[in-house]
Amino acid sequence: LALRRYSSAVSEMEQTILLPSLLRDMPSDEVWDCEAAEETCKDLFSNYLMLKAIRTTVESGLIRLDDHKAKNNIALNKTLEPLLDTDPEALFHFHVRGLFSVMSDLTKKTQTLTEKYMDIIGIAN
User: Fold this and answer.
1) Which 3 state secondary structure label does DSSP give 42?
2) How far apart are CA 4 and CA 47, in angstroms?
3) Nearest to 109 by CA among 56, 64, 49, 59
4) What is the SS3 assignment for 17?
5) CB–CB of 11/113 below 8 Å?
6) Which compartments is it annotated to reside in (predicted)?
7) What is the pLDDT of residues 88-117, one digit of tens each?
8) Is pTM, for the whole model, over 0.85?
9) To 5 degrees, how large is the angle CA 8–CA 99–CA 34?
């Protein structure tokens, strides 16, 4: 359900944002931890592209691993190693809660970006 909501929010964003180029150089008010993700989310256009890319990954199930991101994942895996010795069911619930939390966050960010675009073009919700 969380994945479906996110996908729907991104589809609505794509249908609403007819001219994504209007988002270029528009600063993002939200503080997204993009530096930690090694992304450049300095403007709304970058955020727009990131949200669409995440939806594509979620829907296809294919994860492209860049060399730069692989180093971050290796470091993250080392910090999570103690969790691997825990009960598999507890580990599963930990990851599912994390996934739901992230998907909910991304859905809200997608909806916020759509609302900002509508403000930019002068359409009231």
Assistant:
1) coil
2) 20
3) 49
4) coil
5) no
6) Cytoplasm; Nucleus
7) 888 888 888 999 999 999 999 999 999 999
8) no
9) 85
